[in-house]
UniProtKB/TrEMBL annotation, chain A:
Residues 369-456 form the RagB/SusD domain. Residues 1-23 form the signal peptide. This is RagB/SusD family nutrient uptake outer membrane protein. PROSITE patterns: PROKAR_LIPOPROTEIN (PS51257). Gene3D superfamilies: 1.25.40.390. It is found in: Cell outer membrane.
From TrEMBL, chain B:
It is a multi-pass membrane protein. One of its GO terms (cellular component) is cell outer membrane. It is found in: Cell outer membrane. Transmembrane segments: none annotated. Belongs to the TonB-dependent receptor family. The keyword Transcription regulation does not apply. It comes from Rapidithrix thailandica. This is TonB-dependent receptor. It comes from the Bacteria.
Length: 490, 1013
């Protein structure tokens, strides 16, 4: 009797347990802890602001820990300086990707070229999301700010994309621009297999975005971290200069230089050239700079400006070695051309008081390095006021105007800051070009300036296909509508 | 070994069927095992031609009342040969039973139960703990290499404790895991790497001491594995630990020490050769034709290299040094292993206690592995109907590590240094800091890197006999992994300059699992046998990670983060997933010859959206034991013949826990938080499904002297979980979807032969070989593109797609590539991509011979892999005709093109010229090898000696691991799998056969002694 009773109890226990455990379907509802669902993001202005901030982070090329150095965090500078190099810099690192660039023999599977392409359109998607959801803004002011910033950054990126991947801007249009993607991808069905737009179409979009951004951002110009209407003017001055629209370029540069509050200029040149670099927060010379700190760098191990340009104790690998031929371009006494040659092995950027130094601290040391990127946790200047003076000078010179100041006055502002005597004139085109080359050395201008000036790079004409980046192989394979430059085959 | 399990069954049987008879005279005695003299409980003792009999008790003793006409006793026990003994007028009969060689009677562990091998209808490979116990390796998967038919096992490199790739019948997925499910005593355990992402993955299974393992079963076909449903597409590896055994307490002690060296060294240029090659390369860089160059030109080129560029210290000035950097990267490694086990108990309670200490130095400088582990397994018959028990193992492993294979600071990258530069500063004796590349020895001297795991595997169970034949079992298991990584690069080290870089990373993985199931077995009329299993299981896994990286240390001695001044990265995160499953299985056997097995599982997972959460995974299989049929009675040599067929569905879930969601992720913009779009929605994401068909034939010849298995299978995976390539202009590079199909088909053959069984000599051998053909049948859109690894429609997973190297232009020494139209081109961009290699082997297998003679035993075990290609990524630096950078080159580069007319396959040397150093088939090699994996010679001292020493047994042995490798591969070792730096699941599957300064396997001599008390 007792036995049978026991069996029944046990059967009940068993049946009960089984039942209990069947009821745990709810145990399958687990929410992610490190990710947030899209429908919880695109709900208010605050979140939209956060999406916009992610685009700023994207510009310096680091989103995750494994990716680094794309776009303005490194590659846009290296692409320009390496492709344009005729010996003023040598690449002494072991990476093949940069070696291909300096050899003007870029392979279609170059991973740096691929990654910057990917990152550019990745940031673009964030910007397009912001532009699509502007109605979340609570006030017309915040809407204008969000829209203006998103358009400004989109204009900036497309401008650089077309400068690197497109044929040089000329009066006659070219089919080899870059694809314009102006709407966000929110689901896989949104994806279009976009062809290249023409060079003119891309420039047209860039100018349209920037002009609108400039107008929208006017009145929000206090903030030195996010992009301002003056930064937009500065970008416009670059675009117009590249297009040969000199008067417009001079006007935009003039607007930046003249930015003042109650008669006090907001942007000011630092009192010595080196002080414009390696700053923890924006200097008075920064019109637009990417914000970095020790936990948010552009990459210090395998990529990034500091990685390749610096060779100090614990900073950089000295891969971008500046040649004596570059140093020789500076006049005696030029503060921009000094070389420190007695750094201790333990030296960091704080110990460097010249624009160049002989690298120390390990592998590849002993070469000349630029001091502009001595610490990967310091801000990266994208636009400095000095560029605006040089742009205004060159544009006025070419247009035969004196908007804001005469070209000679502007050139002399830069010279005097560099500790040099002012020029008496007459000013020549070569002098302007040289001043620009020296002041903006290793800041990623060379290739674009050479193309503007239609100057040969070594034996290559300014418009040689070798000086245009290939569309990444993965992209050509993923999108049959994309047409590679014939030089790169397929 | 198998006896342990059988005894447990035996004891239970004994409890159930003890009966008393009242007859006239009695006979008593003891039954022992012939191999060690231990008493055997549960042996059936039957009076021939009657139903009278009994079973032996816990001490192997029996007592049987005999009727007048009793003449002969039959002693039988599963796993032993039956024996008949004439009674005569003896009243005491002692019998010693001999272990049966009949593999077919082996008990095989299946999901949620066991089966006799003879009755299997699925395909299961089994390895007993006894076969693998003496191997000086860290983890049990390594011991299975070549021993399990159709299972391809590959270490990622020769560094201890790092990940092992296991593919059961090929890869079935592109973007979900291809590793099998590991189940230890019923608990699915954590087997995925939990280490930092910028180093090679580590192997949490190395926490398990395989000396505690009774058997390992690999469930290969759908019928065997489908009971594990959604996790079974890649096969299931079931690990069963040793259980206690009633009887006198037995103690086993063993000690082993080993000495290791690398299996191979490559050989790089010596100082003179280096100087010759790089002078030539520099001359070309300077625009001077080396053929017409004067001695002065050559001298100047050297000065340019050493002084002008400052890149190669000692190139001209140091004529003394001829450094062999390769030798410096390796160390002579010593290992020690001590093992202890104790087992015993009484009829009601049995225990097993195991302890292990393993300390192994790696052959690569700065690597090592250490493990302490202990296990207690307990079983107790609480009441007639209730059995309870459990197991608990605790272990601590410590891994001493070096930087990733792609880091300058990793020891094997020392080979890139110039032989003209000394490794150590001749004045100070410290590592030389004036080298081309950062000297990894600096890192070695100034850095520490270690991973410490505490692992607890515990389970408790209760088993209730509700009615005869009907049982309910419940178990609860926990797998707790607590991993602490400490990495510190010192103030003067390469990675840590200028103020030290420290990292502290902690991972805790808790895996909770419960299984609850009913089993019913019943035999009707001795013709029908039915076994039914019905139950559910639930698993929840939670992974918590905390990681801090900081710099700015005051002193290398103060290297915990507490002393640092600046944070570099900080992470705290949690990832959870759960599985809820219901399963059922029925085995039906008719007349001992017709077998039918039906199983099904329903799995629900948190990894899918609500609508696609549950998957249904059924399987059916049938077997026919032809040799039981009367029409095959007189086939003489044929002692056993069985046909098997199975068909079933298994599944796979994504590695990522939230792949179906559209999400954003937090980012940091210099202190300002942001939200970045992260994944596109994939709302229809569902289980990846693999249907597998298997046809098998088991046979025995000459009274099972020869046994074998032949299997043919087709595995078809549809709705592939795939990270589909998207045009990056969309803002995304991929989306996770169910698209595409993959197929694996293959043949497996296993053959066991008892060649000689003439006392005192015996010789048996076992041979297995498997062929698997993998093909990505369908893919939506473009390839998944790695460099050069790809997923391409119509090709096997991970094929190498790149330019085809076509040798050297004899006129100018240019590297040439096939232009796709039968010609060649020197322009890499114009050469089309084509398939130039396949990392998947055509055949894998193993070949074992066991010899024994008068206490001596010799085991010789070969393992082989045939038909796989390796992409040697490091050769773009080390075998690049001095045109990549300044790396020392392999000897073959001296064959470079020098002057017009030279016919060679190595292009001209030209400093940083990049001549032929790009990714191409130039760096693809055949990775086939056959290896003398282990050879062991042992001696078991005879009882006469052990008795004198008061020992139960005594064995000494000497053993060799990886002593001899035959291969055409020119790298260190063909067993390689560098996983790259971006270890997404897709990349992990895609990147196979990649060598990038990857450490070779160790070649080890071991000496050991085993003592039984």
């Amino acid at each position: 009797m007792i036995k049978i009773y026991k069996v029944h109890i046990m059967s009940l226990v068993v049946a009960g347990t089984m039942l209990l455990l069947t009821a745990c379907d709810s145990q399958l509802d687990i929410k992610p802890r490190q990710l947030i669902k899209t429908e919880e993001v695109l709900v208010d202005e605050g979140n939209l602001q956060l999406v916009l901030i992610s685009a700023y982070t994207g510009l310096k090329g680091t989103f995750g820990t494994n990716e680094a150095g794309e776009l303005y965090g490194g590659d846009f500078n290296f692409f320009s300086e390496l492709l344009a190099s005729t010996g003023e810099v040598t690449w002494v690192g072991s990476f093949d990707q940069q070696k291909e660039l300096i050899n003007k023999a870029v392979l279609v599977n170059n991973s740096r070229v691929r990654d910057s392409w990917i990152r550019a359109y990745d940031v673009m998607n964030s910007l397009n999301i912001v532009l699509k959801y502007l109605d979340l803004a609570k006030s017309p002011e915040s809407k204008a700010s969000l829209e203006g910033q998103a358009l400004a950054l989109r204009g900036l990126i497309y401008f650089d994309l077309v400068r690197f991947w497109g044929t040089p801007y000329q009066a006659s249009d070219s089919e080899y621009g870059v694809p314009l993607v102006l709407t966000p991808t929110e689901k896989v069905e949104d994806i279009e297999f976009v062809p290249r737009n023409t060079v003119h179409e891309v420039y047209g979009q860039v100018v349209e975005d920037l002009l609108k951004a400039k107008q929208l951002l006017e009145g929000f110009d206090k903030n030195d971290v996010f992009i301002s209407s003056y930064a937009v003017s500065a970008i416009l001055s670059r675009v117009y200069l590249q297009q040969g629209e000199f008067q417009k370029a001079a006007e935009e540069a003039n607007r930046v230089i003249g930015f003042n509050v109650d008669g006090k200029n907001i942007y000011k040149l630092m009192d010595s050239p080196l002080k414009a670099f390696n700053n923890e927060s924006n200097s008075t010379e920064d019109v637009f700079a990417l914000q970095l700190n020790s936990v948010s760098t552009s990459g210090e191990n395998n990529a990034g400006l500091t990685t390749h340009y610096a060779r100090l104790n614990g900073h950089g690998r000295g891969d971008m070695r500046i040649s004596q031929s570059h140093i020789d371009l500076y006049e005696d006494g030029d503060l921009r051309g000094g070389v420190v040659d007695n750094l201790a092995d333990e030296a960091v950027i704080a110990n460097v008081d010249q624009m160049f130094y002989i690298g120390v601290g390990g592998q590849n040391d002993g070469g000349i390095q630029t001091s502009k990127y001595g610490d990967g946790s310091r801000n990266i200047s994208i636009i400095r006021l000095a560029e605006m003076y040089l742009t205004r000078a060159e544009a006025n010179f070419e247009a035969g105007t004196n908007i804001g100041a005469s070209p000679l006055e502007d050139i002399n502002v830069i010279r005097e800051r560099a500790g040099l005597d002012p020029l008496a004139g007459p000013l020549t085109r070569e002098m302007i070009h040289k001043e620009r080359h020296l002041e903006l050395a290793w800041e990623g201008f060379t290739l674009h300036d050479m193309k503007r000036w239609k100057e040969n790079i070594g034996s290559l004409a300014y418009d040689a296909p070798e000086l245009i980046l290939p569309i990444p192989e993965r992209e050509i394979e993923a999108n049959e509508n994309l047409k590679q430059l014939p030089h790169y085959g397929q | 070994m198998k006896r342990l399990l059988l005894n447990v069954i035996g004891v239970s049987l004994c409890l159930l069927c003890m009966q008393a008879y009242a007859q006239e005279r009695t006979v008593t005695g003891t039954v022992t095992a012939s191999e060690d003299g231990a008493p055997l409980p549960g042996v059936s003792v039957l009076v021939k031609s009657t139903n009278t009999g009994g079973v032996t008790d816990i001490d192997g003793k029996f007592r049987i009342a005999l009727s007048e006409n009793a003449e002969v006793l039959i002693f039988s026990f599963v796993g032993y040969e039956s024996q008949e003994v004439a009674i005569g007028n003896q009243s005491v009969i002692n019998v010693s039973l001999k272990g049966s060689e009949k593999l077919l009677e082996e008990v095989v562990v299946v999901g949620y139960g066991t089966q006799i091998k003879q009755d299997l209808t699925g395909n299961i490979a089994k390895v007993s703990g006894e076969e693998i116990k003496e191997m000086p390796v860290q983890s049990f998967e390594q011991t299975l290499q070549g021993r399990t038919t159709g299972v391809f096992i590959e270490s990622s490199n020769g560094k201890p404790g790092e990940a092992i790739k296991v593919r059961v019948r090929g890869s079935s997925s592109v973007s979900a895991s291809n590793q099998p499910l590991y189940v230890v005593d019923g608990i699915p355990v954590t087997s995925e790497n939990q280490g930092i992402t910028n180093n090679q993955p580590t192997n949490p299974l190395a926490d398990i001491n395989f000396n505690d393992v009774e058997s390992i079963e690999v469930l290969k076909d759908a019928s065997a594995a489908a009971i594990y449903g959604s996790r079974a597409a890649n096969g299931v590896v079931i690990i069963t630990t040793k259980r206690g055994k009633a009887g006198k307490t037995k103690i086993d002690l063993s000690y082993q020490t080993g000495f290791s060296k690398p299996t191979n060294k490559i050989g790089f240029l010596n100082a003179a050769e280096y100087r010759e090659l790089y002078t030539e390369a520099t001359l070309r860089y300077l625009g001077i034709d080396p053929v017409t160059a004067t001695e002065q030109d050559k001298q100047d080129a050297g000065i340019f290299l050493e002084e002008t560029t400052g890149l190669v210290p000692g190139f001209v000035s140091n004529t003394e040094t001829d450094e062999n950097w390769e030798d410096i990267a390796f160390q002579d490694a010593v290992s020690h292993q001590a093992n202890f086990s104790m087992t015993g108990g009484n009829e009601k309670t049995q225990f097993y206690i195991g302890g292990n200490y393993f300390d192994q130095e790696g052959i690569l400088l700065g690597t090592g592995f250490e493990r302490f582990s202990g296990r207690l397994n307990l079983d107790h018959q609480a009441f007639d109907r209730l059995k309870v028990g459990g197991g608990l193992s605790l272990s601590r492993t410590e891994l001493e590590r070096v930087s990733n294979d792609n880091a300058f600071s990793t020891p094997l990258q020392l080979v890139a240094q110039a032989p003209v530069t000394p490794a150590y500063d001749p004045e100070t004796g410290e590592p030389n800091r004036n080298t081309i590349y950062d000297n990894g020895l600096v890192e070695f001297a100034n850095s520490e890197s270690g991973t410490e795991n505490y692992r607890m595997l515990g389970n408790i169970y209760g088993e209730l006999t509700i009615l005869p034949g009907l049982r309910f079992r419940t178990d609860l298991g926990v797998d707790l992994l607590d991993q602490q990584e400490e990495n510190y690069s010192g103030i003067t080290s390469i990675d840590g300059r200028p103020s030290g870089l420290g990292e502290s990373r902690k991972v805790r993985v808790i895996n909770f699992n419960t299984n609850n199931f009913l089993t019913y077995s019943k035999s009707f009329n001795k013709l029908h046998n039915l076994d039914v299993t019905l139950g559910m299981s639930f698993q929840r896994s939670s992974t918590q990670l905390t990681s801090l990286q900081a710099k700015g240390f005051p002193h290398d001695e103060l290297n915990t983060i507490a002393s640092a001044v600046e944070t570099v990265t900080f992470i705290a995160s949690e990832e959870d997933f759960s599985f809820l499953s219901y399963f059922a299985r029925a085995n039906y056997k008719f007349n001992n010859r017709y077998l039918l097995n039906v199983s099904a599982r329903i799995d629900g997972s948190s990894k899918f959206g609500k609508d696609n959460r549950y998957g249904f995974f059924p399987a059916v299989s049938a077997g026919w034991i032809l040799s039981e049929e009367s029409f095959l009675d007189n086939l003489g040599v044929l002692s056993f013949l069985k046909l098997r067929a199975s068909y079933g569905l298994t599944g796979n879930a994504p590695t990522s826990n939230f792949a179906h969601l559209s999400t954003y992720k937090g980012v940091n913009y210099a202190g300002k938080p942001g939200l970045r779009p992260w994944t596109l929605p994939s709302p229809d994401l569902k289980w990846e499904e693999t249907t597998q068909m298997n046809f098998g034939l088991d046979f025995g010849l000459w009274n099972d002297r020869i046994t074998g298995e032949i299997d043919y299978y087709i595995k078809n995976t549809t709705d592939l979980l795939l990270s589909r390539t998207l045009p990056a202009t969309s803002g995304y590079t991929s989306i996770f979807e169910n698209v595409g199909e993959m197929e694996n088909k293959g043949i497996e053959l296993l053959l066991n032969v008892a060649i000689l069984q003439q006392k005192p000599f015996s010789w048996d051998m076992s041979f297995n070989i498997a062929r698997n053909e993998n093909e990505v049948v369908k893919l939506l859109g473009t390839d998944i593109i790695g460099n050069p690894f790809r997923v391409r429609e119509g090709e096997p997973l991970g094929v190498f797609v790149t330019r085809k190297y076509a040798g050297v232009n004899p006129d100018n020494g240019d590297a040439l590539y096939a232009d796709g139209e039968g010609g060649t081109t020197a322009d890499y961009n114009l050469a089309p991509n084509m398939v130039v290699g396949d990392p998947n082997p055509d055949f894998v297998g193993g070949f074992t011979n066991n010899f024994s003679w008068n206490g001596f035993d010799l085991n010789v075990f070969f393992q082989f892999v045939q038909g796989n290609d390796i992409y040697v990524g490091s050769k773009t630096y080390s075998s690049s005709n001095a045109s990549s950078f300044l790396d020392n080159q392999t000897k073959d580069q001296m064959r470079r093109w020098q002057k017009p007319g030279d016919i060679t396959d190595v292009p001209r040397a030209e400093l940083v010229g990049g001549i032929g150093d790009q990714t191409s088939s130039r760096y693809v090699e055949d990775g086939s090898y056959i290896r003398l994996k282990t050879i062991t010679l042992g001696y078991n001292f005879p009882k006469t000696i052990t008795d004198k020493l008061f020992l139960r047994s005594l064995r000494v042995y000497v053993s060799g691991l990886n002593l001899w490798t035959i291969t055409d591969y020119t790298g260190w070792d063909p067993e390689v799998n560098y996983t790259g730096t971006n270890r997404s699941q897709t990349n992990t599957n895609l990147i196979q056969g990649y060598d990038f300064y990857t450490a070779p396997q160790p070649k080890t001599w071991s000496f050991g002694v085993n003592i039984g008390l």
